[in-house]
Amino acid sequence: MKLRKWAIPALLLLTVLSGCKSGGNDLTPEPTPEPTAEDAIGAYLKDWQRLDYAGMYAMLTPDARAKLTAEQFAERYGKIYEGIKADKLAVEDVSPPPASPSSASPASTASAGPVVQKFQFSVSMDTIAGPVKFKHEGTARKTPDGEEQKWRIDWDSSMIFPEMKDGDKVRVQTLASERGEIVDRTGEGLAVNGTAPQLGIVPGKLGEDPAAVKAKVAAKLGITAADIDRKLGASWVKPELFVPIGIVDEADMDAFDNVPGVLFQQKKLRVYPLGEAAAHLTGYVGEINAEQLERLKDKGYKAGDVIGKAGLEQVLEDQLRGTDGVVVAIEDASGQRKSVLAEKAAVPGTSFQLTVDAGLQKTIYEEIKADASSAAAIEPRTGEVLALLSSPSYDPNAFARGLSAKQYAAWNDDPRHPFLNRFSKGYAPGSSFKIVTAALGLDAGTLDPDKAVEISGLKWTKDGSWGSYYVKRVHAVNPVDLSKALTYSDNIYFAQAALALGKDKFAEDAAKFGIGEAIPIVYPLAKSQLSNKGLKSEIQLADSGYGQGEVTMTSLHVALAFSAIVNGGNIAYPRLTLADDPDSPQVWKAAAMTPESADILKKDLVQAVASPEGVGHGAYIQGSSIAGKTGTAELKASKGTQGEENGWFVGFDANDPKLLLAVMVEDVSGRGGSTYVTPKVKRIFQQAMKG
C-alpha cells in the first residue's frame, strides 16, 4: 500500500497554529478552582449529616485537632448520640445569602493573612426525651496546610450543642413514673405507694467492732452477716457512702440507737395495707428478673425495674406500670446541670378502684384464715365482687420489703400451700350445685316441686346396669319433695332429677348458667365445667346432679349462679372494678331460670336454713331471712373408700340481699362436714349487718 501525502496550503496551516494559541481555542487545561469557604462548610455539614466523624475531623483546623484526637472526636459524638438515642438527624447550612462584591467585608476577600468566614447552621434530631432543634454559628478559617492555605472549620464543643463547653457532659436521667394504686370501693388502699425506713450502713463508721454491728443488723433483719458483707463488697461502695441493707418497721428503729455506722433513709415502696387478707387478690411486686427482662425488653423494661409478680399486680401490670419520663441535660464537670435539651414527663400508671369492700374482706379472712379455703362475696343485684379470698395466705409486704430466704422457704415448704390461690381454682361444688339441677328440672317440666317422691333407705341404684354403684344420702326421709330435698340435701332426689332431664338436656341447659365459660372479670379464673369430655354415662349424669362427678366451679361462679335466685332468674354481670360506663351490661346470663323457679328456690332455701332439721341451720340468724345451701363434696378414688371432703355454704339474706356469700373449706371430714362452715358464715353475715 502506498502512503498518500496530503498537501496543506501554508496559509491554512498558519491559521490553525494561530488558533491554538488564542481565546477559546486554547487547548491548555484551565487550573481547578480553589475550594471556597462554602465548599468546606458544605462538606463538613454533609459529613456530619451522615455521621462520618472521620470526614468531619479531617475538615477541622489544626488548632481544633490539637485539642483531641480523631478517635476522641468520634467517641465524643458517638457516645452522646448513642446515649440520647439520636435519630433522624438533619444538619443544614442556613447562612444568609453572600453580600454583593461591592459590600463584601475584608474578612471574606482574598488576602495574604488568615481569612475568616462565619456561617450559620441548624440541627434537628429525635431523642429519647423528644425532639431537639437548635441554630448555631460556626467559623470557617483559611489556615496554612503545608505550602497551601485551605478552608477549615474552627470547631469547639458548642458545635455539638450551643450550651456545651469543653469538659461538659450530656446526661440522660430517667424520671420514674408513679405506679398506679389499687383501692377498694371506698378508697381504702389495697396496693398503694408508700415509704418505709430503710436501714443502711456507712462502712467507714462501723466503729471498733464491725462484726458485732453486722451480727446485730443481720439478726434483726432475718439475714446473715454474709449477706451484709456481700452488699458492702459491691464495687460502687466507698467508706463514706450509705449502703442499703434492708427495710425495717418503724417500731424497730429504736433498737439501733447509738449503733455505729447504722443510719436510716425513707425508701419508696409498695404497701399492702390488708396484708394476708388480700394477698392472693392484690398479689405483689418485685424486681424484674433476667428471664422477664429478656422477654419484656422491647416494652422498655430495664434491670432494677419493679414488676407485678402475682395477683392483680401482675394481671394489670401494663396499666399500673405507667411510663417513665426522661431528661436529656448538659452538666458541667462538677455535675451541676447547666441546661435541659429535651424532657419527656413521666406518665403515672392507671389506678384502679375495685368493687371490693376492704372491711368485709378482712372479716371473712378472720373467719377462714385457719383453714385451707376459698371465699367469694358479691352484691347479687349488681354483680359487684365484694370479696375474693384464699387461705392460708402470706404477707405480700414481705416481698416488697425484701423477702428473706428463710421466710420464703417457710411459706414454700408449708404443706398447706399458702401461695396457692384457691379462689381462682375450680372445685367440686357438691350440694351447692343442686339449685342448678333443681332450676333445670323446674323449667323443663321434669321436676314437680310439690310431688312427693318415694325414696327408701340411704342408698339407691337405678337398675342392674349400674352394677355395684349406688348413690348415697345422709337422711332417710320418705317421701321427699323439692323443699325437703333442699332442707336435708338429698343426693338421691337430685340424682333422679338429673336422670329425668337426660344427658343432652342437662348439658344444654346447664350452659345457661355460664358453665364452661370464662367469668368476665379482669382477674383470670378457672373455667367451670360440667364434665371433662362430655357426660359419658347415666352414673356420671346422676353424680353431676348433686355437684359431684366431674363438675367443678370456682367460689365466685357458685355465688353468681345463686344471684339468679335474687334477680328473678337473671345472673348479674360480675364486676371487679368500679367504672362509669353507662353502657356496661347489667346481666351476664339472662333467664338462667324462670322467675317462677327463682321464687320457689328462694322460699325453699330460706326454709333449708330456718328449719332446725336443715343441714344449713347453723347459719340461721334470728330476725333475718338467710336463704342458703350447704354442700359437701367428697374426694375419693372409688366408691366405699375413705376420702377428703370439702364443705360449702352459699347464701344471702332474702329480705335484704346486699350480700351473697360462697365459702368453701377443704378437708372438713371428721369436723362436721358442711356444718363446720355454717357458723363461720353466720358470723360473717352478723358482722356485715352491723355495718
Question: Topology of this structure?
Answer:
Layout (H helix, E strand, L loop, with lengths): L9 H10 L17 H13 L3 H6 L3 H6 L2 H14 L3 E7 L21 E13 L2 E16 L2 E6 L15 E7 L6 E2 L5 E13 L8 H12 L3 H8 L10 E5 L14 E10 L7 H4 L2 E3 L2 H7 L9 E3 L2 H5 L1 H5 L3 E7 L5 E8 L7 E2 L4 H11 L4 E7 L4 E8 L4 H6 L3 H8 L21 H11 L14 E2 L10 E2 L9 H6 L3 H11 L1 H8 L27 H8 L9 H12 L4 E2 L14 E3 L5 H16 L15 E10 L8 E10 L6 E6 L12 H13 L1
Parallel strand pairs: 6-14
Antiparallel strand pairs: 1-2, 2-3, 3-4, 5-12, 6-7, 7-8, 7-9, 10-11, 12-13, 15-16, 15-23, 17-18, 19-20, 21-22, 22-23
Helix pairs in contact: 6-7, 12-22, 15-17, 17-19
Family: Belongs to the transpeptidase family.
Keywords: Membrane, Signal
GO molecular function, one term: penicillin binding
Brief summary:
The chain is an alpha+beta fold. Helix content is 29%, strand content 22%. Residues 1-24 and 101-111 have low confidence and may be disordered.
How does this model look, in words?
The protein is of the alpha+beta class and 691 residues long. It folds into three domains: 37-96 and 113-166, NTF2-like, domain 1 (Nuclear Transport Factor 2, Chain: A), CATH 3.10.450; 194-269, Ribosomal Protein L30, Chain: A (2-Layer Sandwich); 361-391 and 425-690, Beta-lactamase (3-Layer(aba) Sandwich). The protein is 29% helix and 22% strand. It is built from 22 helices and 23 strands. Strands 6, 7, 8, 9 and 14 form a five-stranded mixed β-sheet that branches. A hairpin with a 5-residue loop joins strand 12 and strand 13 (337-344). Helix 17 (491-501) crosses helix 19. The longest helix is centred in the last third of the chain and has 16 residues, at 595-610. The protein is elongated. The termini are far apart. Residues 1-24 and 101-111 have low confidence and may be disordered.
